[in-house]
Write the structure tokens for this entry.
Amino acid sequence: MGEERHILIVEDNEEDAVMLRRTLQQSEEFAYTFTTVMLGEQALEVCQTLRPTCIFLDYYLPDMSGIDILKELRQPETEMRFVPVILLTGQGNEYIATQAIQAGAQDYIKKSDYTLERLNTSISSALEHMRLKLALYDLEQQRAELFRLEKVARLQAEEANRVKIQFMGMISHEMGGPLASMKVLADSMQSNKATFNQARKILKMIGGEAERLYELVGQLLDLSRMQAATLTIKAEEKHFSDLLEAAQMQLEAMTPNHRLVINLSNDLPTVWIDSRRILQVLLNLVNNAVKFSPHQTTITLNVMTIPEGIQVEVLDEGIGIPHEKRELVFEPFQQLVGDNQSIGTGLGLAICKGIIEAHSGHIWIVDNVERGTKFCFVLPAFRKMKEDSSYHNSPYAPPIK
């Protein structure tokens, strides 16, 4: 037995269909099987489930022409567009032949030319033609994909360049402000006109500007370490209530013009954390709440037990963050906006996200807050991190005893 070939014959004349089948069955080189239909609609229906090796399609059918069927089969979204089609007609006609080729047929045969050699050659040529057409289609798809990837890469490069320019501008602005202030203050000190008390005030102001610079440099270092996966986390088992107690004075000092409310569950599990880093997150979230909410409004800090561990919420009564920008705020250099102007370097929340994720936790903004903004983060319980193997791959997982 030779190579198997399944042929779909679309022919309303039974005698012509029988002649075609008998001629092909004489082949010793190929093993032919057949499906035969008499109408165009039947052919289209069969093609929904059958993928023949080749289709022999009569030009004249009772319900539709062979050209119309060809056009349906060659639609871009159909799987049959790469199946070879050979058009059949009772008489040779150059106009019909041109129509057939233009509509997507691979060959055109007069029924009087039914010889085994002619049919085998026609099928083989049609298969090779379609194989080349499919290869060309694949190349075009690959070419289109390469163009798409090139466009994506170009847009990414443009975005990286834009971020770089934005970053340089932001750094120049953020560092230039304190440096300019320190220079002016230092010049005042050197003028020999400042009294002792004035000099003390100037030194205090210089110290404040230096603190701003120190904080900015620290944020940049944290961000670079996160991007390089070298951020150091010195974790230990800790009661979150102990961390809050130690931070109480800092939190109160940050909120002199707001009402700070702290709600703490009594049954909190211990957590495996770097207290300094988690405090950094907490102070950053509270500081944002202070910046973006009016004086005399309430800032609420909730710490509660959940099945995973603990959930911390920082809720303010400020201007809120538009829904479409809530995911962006955790990206570097995405500055929040308050009172019609950008505030901060746009690094704080990105660093918060990196710190929380380094602790195998997650951070997000709650969607359904009617007023203000509600930041939440979750830290897994110490016991859960030890027992659940999904946490064991973390470089900061607790030791397993």
Q: What stands out?
A: The two ends are 68 Å apart (CA to CA). The mean pLDDT is 84.
